[in-house]
Amino acid sequence: MRVLYPEVSSEVCVASADQSLQLWHERLCHQNKAHVKDILIKYQIKSDVKDSKICDGCCYGKQCRRPFGTRKQSATTPGELINIDICGPMQQQSLGGTKYYVCFKDDFTKYCRVFFMQFKNEIFQVP
């Protein structure tokens, strides 16, 4: 058996063409373009950082939407504000045969109750 040892190893740049900011945005899993610019500058990667094209994938994922504003006041006593979320229909039924559920959450205590329903209109009969 003959053992081969590498003679000299060196790092080489295979491609030296400037890449667009949009391409790096996609390569980095659709990160915020300001963060992508910072990464490119930090690692001295040549790129066209003036690219301001809006990403279609981010628009479809609604990442270009502004965040909801923060509430100025929260509840000061239990039961003052109850948040209700209804979810369904689920593709898979639960073991009890239901496809919907409703979640009640007290804003002050953070206490949460979940009720399962077969039909969405059962929300009015939830105990």
TrEMBL record:
The lineage of its organism: Eukaryota, Metazoa, Ecdysozoa, Arthropoda, Chelicerata. The gene is POLX_2409. Residues 8-63 form the GAG-pre-integrase domain. It comes from Nephila pilipes. It comes from the Eukaryota. InterPro entries: GAG-pre-integrase_dom, Retrotran_Ty1/copia-like, RNaseH-like_sf, RNaseH_sf. This is Retrovirus-related Pol polyprotein from transposon TNT 1-94. One of its GO terms (molecular function) is nucleic acid binding.
